[in-house]
Specification:
GO terms for molecular function: cysteine-type peptidase activity. Belongs to the peptidase C48 family. With about 110 residues, the protein is mainly alpha-helical. The chain has 2 domains: about 1-35, no CATH class; about 40-90, no CATH class. The chain is built from 3 helices and 2 strands, in the order βαβαα.
Length: about 110
């Protein structure tokens, strides 16, 4: 998105033409590439993240790399990558408040 240029590039593998019509982009110049491989049901979040990652790194996005058998591995790796990028990721103490688990019982 470039606000000064009033330009948006929409990377969308899900919305139908009817859904797209709901959003007014009249004041923006935009492009909607059509060569995006479609996501399968339930995969859209991971698919979108991996597609964005490939675009950002200049890597060709291969639909076969996104095959169903790779789904869990990709999700696990993404979770680890995100966790490792957190500031102080390894300094967490007991922040889930286990001492108060019974507070809402009974």
């Amino acid at each position: 998105i470039s606000i000064p240029k009033r330009h948006i590039v929409v990377w969308d593998s899900i919305c139908s033409n009817e859904q797209r019509a709901q959003y007014s982009l009249e004041s923006f110049r935009y492009e909607r590439p059509t060569n995006i491989p479609p996501a399968r049901a339930g995969d859209c979040g991971m698919y979108s993240l991996k597609y964005i990652e490939c675009r950002a790194l200049g890597i060709e996005f291969s639909k076969k790399d996104f095959a169903k058998p790779n789904g869990k591995t990709m999700r696990d790796k993404m979770a680890v990558d995100i966790f490792q990028e957190l500031p102080d990721a390894h300094d967490f103490e007991n922040k889930d408040n286990d001492a108060n688990l019974g507070a809402y019982e009974g």
